Amino acid sequence: MRETAKRQREVPGGKWIFEDAPIPRAVAEMAVPTVITQLINIVYNFADTWYVGRTGNAAMVAALSVCMPIYVYMAAIANLFGIGGSSAISRSLGRKQPERARHIFAFCLFGGLVAALLYALIMLVFGGRIIPLIGGDDRSSPYVRDYIFWTMILGAIPTVGNVLCGHLVRSIGAAKQAGFGMSMGAILNIVLDPLFMFVILPPGHEVAGAAAATLISNTASLMYFLVFLVRHRENPVFTVNPAEISFSAGIPGDVLLVGIPAALQTMLAMTSNIFANALVRGYGSEAVAGMGVAKKINMIAFNTTMGLTQGILPLLGYNYGAGNYRRMRKTIRFTAVIGLVFTTSCLLVFRGFAVPMVRFFIAEEKSVAFGSTFLRIIAFAAPLCTFSYLMNAVFQASGWKRCSLVLSVCRKGLLDIPAMFFFRGAFGALGVVLATPFAETLSLGLAVVMYLVYVRKLPAPAGRKDDVSGTAGRVGPRDDRG
After folding, report:
1. pTM over 0.85
2. 178 with 228: CB under 8 angstroms?
């Protein structure tokens, strides 16, 4: 009895953070671990490119750039069940429905792992045919095959699983634990990269070495999460029991209709990268390598902002479910200021130090010339993405499926891919990159309009306190609006 009580006190949870903590403290508690995880993942991506860049082989660097979109498709699978599940779980907790949250957790955990297995089978059967479609050429294709085998055939389940578990664990407010698990895998990857690339495997197999290190690291991260869930099984939400899966009470629709826009946002972003690689491929492997390096550097702005908005998603979802709209608005405003200050700083740094930043990753001069020019252009998109990411997180957290879907599809896919073809005809390789700030500008306008509609449909806050007495416990606008 005493042991059970002790373990229950140790179970992580976020009720105080969700309901009572000052807004800066709540945002910090939820977002900082997620941002740190994103930054560590960026360092890991940088490490891969930096280590492979030391070989002086532009085809190897290009192979990493070519593989990045289809590798990140696995993150889309994780987002389908992870962000969709996080939104549904946090709203259920805000409405004091822990049993429903538990069934959602089980549905998302096992649904994501099954989807990862299907992705691995698809890559096993069709991987060879996909390579030329994503920008691989005769020089880079052997390296692309190695990377696919280790990270997407053998590594699909651990890659999807650790990101998925991070989202689900964060949904109850355990952001630190989620951040630790995901960061641990990325740090281990950074440590293992040089060991596998330059010690264990012979020269010429550096890409395979980086991929093997990724597989091992993601597996370790997934094992951490599974042990964590078993250890804290007394938590009313956590479960690793497939018998807890439920297809009733609208759970699949609640998860997937929010998760699909989140997955599409990731998939379309990577599809955009595939088109970008294919459109600049005619300018040589150096252009593809330069594009890859520029986009990796720009990840500092984009992924940090993504981490910030994903981190606060459960906080927004809980308060939406609880009817605490005043606290939601304060959280949104505070996050917007933080995000804008950071991304504007990134814009200034990227434009001012483009050449040395690109040269840090690859020394080949033609690739540096392409990469630094590309970076100066796409840097303009950094501040613009702040509000698009934030508004999408608001719609996801609130279950506003249509708004999230429209914004996701327009931002990446509907706007930027046609713009790549149009601007390429006018400006060549530079036009492919110009499409990014162009699409972000239009998406920002769309996001602002939809957010104004969203705010008008929220009930006016009552009372003077953050608990908005008179609205607490009342469900907000219908989740399927938008």
Report:
1. no
2. no
